[in-house]
Amino acid sequence: EVQLVESGGGLVPAGGSLRLSCAASGFSFDDWYIGWVRQAPGKERERVACIGTGADNTAYGDSVKGRSSISRDNAKKMVYLEMNNLLPEDTADYYCVAIQASFISTVQALGAMAFGSGYWGRGTQVTVSS
Fold this sequence. Notes:
The chain is mostly beta strands. Helix content is 7%, strand content 47%. The strands form two sheets. Strands 2, 4, 5, 6, 9, 10 and 11 form a seven-stranded mixed beta sheet that branches. It has a four-stranded antiparallel beta sheet with strand order 1-3-8-7, with no helix packed on it.
């Protein structure tokens, strides 16, 4: 059974930083795309970041590009999302998503995730205070 468990959310002041973690189990972690999608109340899902099987194979949503970094530790089956210079508009529930796919880019994988594809964790809430 695919399981994804997010952690690291909380209340952060604007301009601050945080690190979200996603613990994965139940699948061949090394071969899957892992990403983050967020959703704020009353808003649509939004792309955050995705990492492919290679550490340098990453993609980011426009709203977080330049402020975020996604990484993975295959030995620990963990994915991390570091976000800096947080803004109040970063307030949302953040979901870890896993997709098994071949011959697609990380940009395409992230798009599929934001569309609702893949396996999802239960999410972790991030609130950025102004």
